[in-house]
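Priority: medium. Attachment 1 of 2:
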């Protein structure tokens, strides 16, 4: 576990090198993003960085940032300079599954608002195709949950309510999460389009064509992956 945390810190350090004074930043959520937020707080405290404003993607990230003295603001209509977050899976094309931490909707709002979206993580997150190890999280409204679940299963998925029926996980937005697994596999772009059409679905954890670059750390150091899209 100590080695894994070191990898996350190493990846976070590479992303921190992209932060410049005066930037408006999007802060991700989860165990890897916490290292980025911690490093950002250290640089502000030491004076290495100045005039930073940040938009957190979860209550957890907001609490950590506030405790470190990182100035926070609401997401402006003009968007963000840079957003940095972790991921659950990433392909060579930089398509990603996110949301195992439960903050996928706010994370996607923040990521899509940034001129540059950068991911950090460890080498375990590499996959040849999405869905190899991670389910596809889908945030749904509580009203009509059984119907929404049936519609999702109609897409060929097994839909598991996160936390179970007795104590379901509740997102920062007051919604539920259904984790989808596809025994027969899935086409990411087609699935994303289908999910966007379903009533009751708030957002999904497929982040496709959004990432500029990713820093993945392992025993051999930090590897930078860049998007080949124009």
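Attachment 2 of 2:
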């Amino acid at each position: 576990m100590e080695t894994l945390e070191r990898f996350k810190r190493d990846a976070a350090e590479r992303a921190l090198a992209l932060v410049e004074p005066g930037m408006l930043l999007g802060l991700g959520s989860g165990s890897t993003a916490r290292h980025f937020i911690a490093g950002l707080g250290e640089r502000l405290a030491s004076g290495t960085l100045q005039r930073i404003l940040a938009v957190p993607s979860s209550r957890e990230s907001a609490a950590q940032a506030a405790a470190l003295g990182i100035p926070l603001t609401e997401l402006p209509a003009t968007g963000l300079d840079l957003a940095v977050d972790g991921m659950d899976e990433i392909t060579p094309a930089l398509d990603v599954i996110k949301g195992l931490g439960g903050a996928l909707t706010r994370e996607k709002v923040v990521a899509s608002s940034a001129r540059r979206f950068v991911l950090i993580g460890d080498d375990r997150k590499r996959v040849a195709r999405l869905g190899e190890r991670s389910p596809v999280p889908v945030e749904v409204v509580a009203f009509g949950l059984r119907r929404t679940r049936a519609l999702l299963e109609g897409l060929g998925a097994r839909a598991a309510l996160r936390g179970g029926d007795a104590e379901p996980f509740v997102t920062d937005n007051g919604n539920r999460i259904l984790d989808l697994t596809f025994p027969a596999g899935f086409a990411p772009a087609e699935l994303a389009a289908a999910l966007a059409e379903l009533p009751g679905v708030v957002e999904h954890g497929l982040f496709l064509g959004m990432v500029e670059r990713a820093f993945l750390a392992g025993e051999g150091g930090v590897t930078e992956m860049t998007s080949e899209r124009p």
